[in-house]
Amino acid sequence: MGVPATLISLAEVSEFKKALRQEQSTIAFVPTLGALHHGHLALVRRAKQLADRVVVSIFVNPTQFGPNEDFAKYPRTVREDIDLLATLNVDAVFLPNTATIYPAGYQTYITNRRMSVGLCGTSRPGHFDGVLTVVMKLVNIIGCDVAVFGKKDYQQLKLIEQMFRDLNHNVRIEPLDTVREPDGLALSSRNRFLSDTDRELAVRLNVGLRAAAAAYQRGENKVDTLVEEFHKVAKVGGIALEYAEIRRQADLESFESMVDQPPVLLIAAKIGQTRLIDNLELDKTIG
Ligand code: PAF
Fold this sequence. Notes:
With 287 residues, the protein is of the alpha/beta class. The protein folds into 2 domains: 7-176, Rossmann fold, CATH 3.40.50; 189-281, 2-Layer Sandwich (Pantoate--beta-alanine Ligase, Chain: A,domain 2). It has helices at 10-22, 38-50, 78-87, 98-101, 120-123, 127-142, 154-166, 196-217, 223-234, and strands spanning 5-7, 27-32, 53-58, 92-94, 146-150, 172-176, 239-248, 263-271, 274-281. Bound molecules: pantoate. Pantoate (PAF) is lined by residues 31-33, 61, 64, 131, 134-135, 153, 156.
């Protein structure tokens, strides 16, 4: 167990990077909003396999939260987070202040004009501008060789991949499968807000995704029928579904009516006051 270096200012990051350059180390980076759980730890473990040094950032990025969203009540557990990262021997934690990332007079934002439309983009206008902007800034500040992102935020992951491709940035983006509770619930920092009853309902989201995946495996290719398999399980009182959509894994484009390329079913729902997202890549080959 090694306590990670705590980097707050850009000058501290520069000093840290200078030392790594001297030892010719590669850097893997895991950006987070904090409130770390086992899903984040899986990202860190993957990062450790990919480079000599691992840097994690903890920054509750204000520009990705809308005016009526949970920025103020987003869990902030920095002490516990650093203790967890120490158990994995993370080399450094970047904990910037808001003024470091968005100094007075800040003006520049990154917008995706296609893949950000629809799905979470509908109910969270501006959210992905905030995500893309902060991810680009953090990756540039850390100067990493590879950055690791979870597939749970599938639209986010695809947008990030697209951004670095479009902007000719050569950082490698490494996607990692969603980590789940034994009953299938996707790990999320927001799960802590679910009451026992909410949590029971939340499990249905994954059961519904798996029902659609099973139908796809049995040979069902109709988009509406596959979504209906999800609805049969998850359309119940207490779950306010926001969307359930089948899209192409490659670029999140919609299908006409039949699935003819590898698909992913993406869903969002509010249970009580908690908004949850999840998804499953549908696959003909595995169970
Ligand atoms: O997925 C998250 O935790 C955040 O959106 C990210 C990528 C750290 C950007 O703030």
